[in-house]
Amino acid sequence: QINTADELVLTELILENVLADYEPAEIVALLSCFVFQEKSQSEPVLTPKLEKGVAKIKEIALRVADIQQSCGLSVRADDALANLRFGLVEVVYEWARGLPFKAITDLTDVLEGSIVRCIVRLDETCREVRGAARLIGDAGLHRKMEEASESIKRDVIFSASLYF
């Protein structure tokens, strides 16, 4: 069951096997668009592969919105894209690749607490995608989601307390 993200768009990503072409760090970076909720003035610098993934997510979101409209729901294409925030894709990608927290905070104007909150929520999204992969029998995606989750669960972000 998917609760932490746009259920329809994320389900389409999974069922269309879009995530199979990406490494765990890239997957978790792309999934950040579903959990990051703030606006950012800084423009992320993305690899060509991540740019392709962002374009695919936008394409699926627009297609889902179009289908919802054709079924009589009052969904606008602008709203479908506005709910996706790609401001932390670079930050999460570099975090998953092992960059220190101080280094990733220098990549964006987003506050440290917001970065922590996004990555913690992202771990829950990874668990949900891993569960969906298990349900549909996609062992490759299941394994990648385990690796993605492990790559972000480290250092200050997942400390029990900052004061001990």
UniProtKB/TrEMBL annotation:
InterPro entries recorded: RNA-DNA_Helicase (IPR050699), Ski2/MTR4_C (IPR012961)
Gene Ontology molecular function, alphabetical:
ATP binding; helicase activity; hydrolase activity
Q: Name one Pfam family in it.
A: DSHCT
SMART domains xrefs: DSHCT
Which organism does this sequence originate in? Blyttiomyces helicus
- Name the record gives this protein: NUC185 domain-containing protein
Q: Mind listing the UniProt keywords for this protein, alphabetically?
A: ATP-binding, Helicase, Hydrolase, Nucleotide-binding
Q: Which residues form the ATP-dependent RNA helicase Ski2/MTR4 C-terminal domain?
A: 1-164
Give GO BP annotations, semicolon-separated. Answer: nuclear-transcribed mRNA catabolic process, 3'-5' exonucleolytic nonsense-mediated decay
**Gene Ontology CC, one term:** Ski complex
Which domain of life does the protein's organism represent?
A: Eukaryota
